[in-house]
Amino acid sequence: MTVIIIVAILAVLVLWVISVQRKLVKLDEISKNALKQINVQQMSRYDALVTMIETAREYALDVESKTIIETIAARRPVQSANPTPDQINQNEQLLNQARLNINAVAERYPELKSAELYTNAQKNYAQNEDQVRLSRMTFNDTVTKFNTQVRMFPGSLVAGPLGFSPKQYLEDNPEKADLPKDLFRKRD
């Protein structure tokens, strides 16, 4: 009778370990997929920037504008089959800086800002930016669930020995949180 009880307890314990391991693997894969989605969407944003750059080249002839455009065109976000949060954050900074630079060029050329190809590229960029924002939230939510499982008892008893450790969150971009004070001011 004692042997049956011990075997039953061991069986329940093994089933519990398998259950926790499966849950951790599932959350790990979801977070990896979210990072890959962000990477793909960042590359789509880069492609939209390239379109904006190519359009700007037709209008921006002064040396400063050409330098900005060439700098943006020369830098490309890291595209990886298995991106890391650090790579995603670096790509985000690169794309934000490039967007600011190309906007600076566009401000000098009203005819550029009204060009159909340029406005379509801006819309495409904005759509991709929204998708990145949603994917970042999905990733960080999944990492929260994963990290909770890894760090909380009794899951932590299984996570450590099976090689699971807490994941890094994607950083917030403080520049995007600061809206310009004159955002809604009527422009002349």
Main beta sheet: none
Q: What is the number of beta strands?
A: 0
Query: CATH topology, what is it called?
Result: de novo design (two linked rop proteins)
Instruction: List the helices and strands in order.
Output: HHHHHHH
Number of H- or I-type helical stretches: 7
In which range does the helix fraction lie? over 70%
CATH class: Mainly Alpha
Name given to the CATH homologous superfamily? LemA-like domain
Model regions low in confidence, pLDDT < 50 over at least 5 residues = 177-188
Class inferred from helices and paired strands: mainly alpha
Characterise this structure.
With 188 residues, the protein is mainly α. It is 76% helix and 0% strand. It has helices at residues 2-59, 63-74, 85-107, 110-113, 116-151, 155-159, 174-177. The longest helix has 58 residues, at 2-59. The radius of gyration is 24 Å and the shape is rod-shaped. The relative contact order is 0.14.
